[in-house]
């Protein structure tokens, strides 16, 4: 059940930097972990690895086959093609949502300031409903590799559901992963080499696609839904990233934030300028994971093994949302934008400091509750069956066609 929480007193605060290390030891290694002892022994962990691999790879294979079945639509009707691929994108979101619910269950705590008042609400079924627009640019600090899973799930929890219209900018090397890389190319994800001279033409091409106006049968123009997810820090927070951020701050005589890395504004500035006539808002999310103390980084404790195999996922994933009008962002001057974005990251750093001290982000503005608490899960357990629908129908059709051909062939043989 989603909890409608009003936090009162120190008893509701989780001082993240102060941990009972006796309860946080791994029985096998003695290594401290914010989610406590490993929930599974070595044997069970191996079984979980096998089950996870079978589930995830099988679902990805089915989604990949579904994509190839629909690929010829590209040559007949582009709108049908993109709608079909959006359907497969929703299938992947269902895959990772159920995967997280089963193997790495965690509590989601969601709040925001006055700019998102009335857009984050609990549901009667114990979930959360967000009412963000159909076309936005999302920016977020990058804590761990799997941040995107929780942010993609936010698209699923939105009304209308936007999990079929997420677009992510990724490292170019990821497109070479078998099946998954091909799937991401079908999704229209944008792959970057991190060299602007090389990236600018392909980025321009993809962004022009995302702002292309369509015409409905009645002659009205419209834009396809789009949530573009950007991580302005460029990489997840780590010791190496923290060092590079500090060096960049020293080189440019800037204040280095304590809990986030200084953002690089070039890519975000380019994207917003390309989309500014077709997107009204930028939504900013500050992400924090329960239990990570000062001096440690999320990637050190919430890796794939800890989260999905050892039974030590984050106890809670905390999201704090803010909204900015694109018209109010200084997009006419790169230096002014750089100052604006850096100022937002300093405010984000202050939010992280508050989270470390209180164990919570500021309360949800304009609401009777401080935050909406729920979990990463699908609306219905059987929703995952949707990903098998196209392959199943095609298999059934092929079976019936083959039987029909066999019957016709048998009758022809009798006649001969």
TrEMBL record:
SUPFAM superfamilies: Glycerol-3-phosphate (1)-acyltransferase. The chain crosses the membrane at residues 46-69, 81-103, 176-193. Keywords: Acyltransferase, Membrane, Transferase, Transmembrane, Transmembrane helix. The keyword Disulfide bond does not apply. Residues 136-269 form the Phospholipid/glycerol acyltransferase domain. Signal peptide: none annotated. CDD domains: LPLAT_LCLAT1-like. Belongs to the 1-acyl-sn-glycerol-3-phosphate acyltransferase family. This is Phospholipid/glycerol acyltransferase domain-containing protein. It comes from Epichloe bromicola. The lineage of its organism: Eukaryota, Fungi, Dikarya, Ascomycota, Pezizomycotina.
């Amino acid at each position: 059940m989603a909890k409608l929480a009003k936090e009162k007193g120190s008893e509701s605060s989780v001082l993240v930097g102060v941990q009972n290390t006796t309860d946080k030891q791994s029985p096998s290694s003695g290594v401290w972990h914010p989610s406590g002892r490993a929930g599974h022994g070595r044997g069970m962990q191996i079984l979980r690895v096998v089950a996870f691999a079978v589930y995830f790879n099988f679902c990805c294979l089915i989604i990949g086959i579904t994509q190839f079945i629909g690929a010829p639509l590209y040559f007949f009707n582009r709108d049908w093609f993109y709608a079909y691929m959006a359907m497969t994108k929703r299938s992947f979101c269902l895959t990772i949502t159920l995967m997280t619910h089963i193997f790495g269950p965690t509590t989601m705590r969601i709040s925001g300031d006055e700019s998102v008042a009335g857009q984050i609400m609990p549901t009667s079924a114990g979930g959360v409903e967000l009412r963000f627009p159909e076309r936005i640019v999302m920016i977020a600090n990058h804590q761990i590799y799997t941040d995107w899973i929780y942010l993609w799930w936010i698209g699923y929890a939105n009304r209308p559901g936007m999990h079929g219209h997420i677009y992510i900018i990724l490292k170019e090397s990821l497109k070479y992963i078998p099946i998954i890389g091909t799937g991401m190319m079908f999704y229209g994800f944008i792959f970057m080499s991190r060299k602007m001279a090389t990236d600018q033409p392909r980025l321009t091409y993809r962004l022009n696609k995302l702002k292309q106006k369509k015409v409905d049968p009645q002659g009205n123009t419209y834009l396809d839904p789009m949530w573009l997810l950007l991580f302005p820090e460029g990489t997840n927070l780590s010791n190496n990233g923290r060092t590079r951020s500090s060096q960049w701050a020293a080189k440019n005589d800037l204040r280095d934030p304590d809990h986030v890395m200084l953002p690089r504004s070039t890519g975000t500035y380019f994207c917003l300028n390309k989309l500014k006539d077709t997107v009204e808002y930028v939504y900013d999310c500050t992400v924090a994971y329960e239990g990570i103390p000062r001096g440690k980084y999320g990637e050190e404790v919430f890796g794939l093994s800890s989260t999905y195999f050892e039974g030590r996922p984050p106890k809670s994933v905390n999201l704090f949302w803010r909204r900015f009008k694109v018209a109010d962002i200084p997009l006419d001057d790169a230096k002014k934008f750089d100052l604006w974005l850096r100022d937002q990251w300093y405010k984000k750093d202050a939010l992280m400091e508050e989270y470390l001290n209180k164990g919570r982000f500021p309360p949800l503005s304009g609401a009777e509750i401080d935050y909406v608490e729920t979990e990463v899960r699908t609306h219905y357990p059987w929703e995952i069956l949707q990903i098998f629908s196209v392959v199943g129908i095609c298999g059934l059709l092929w079976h019936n066609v083959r039987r029909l051909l066999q019957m016709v062939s048998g009758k022809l043989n009798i006649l001969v």
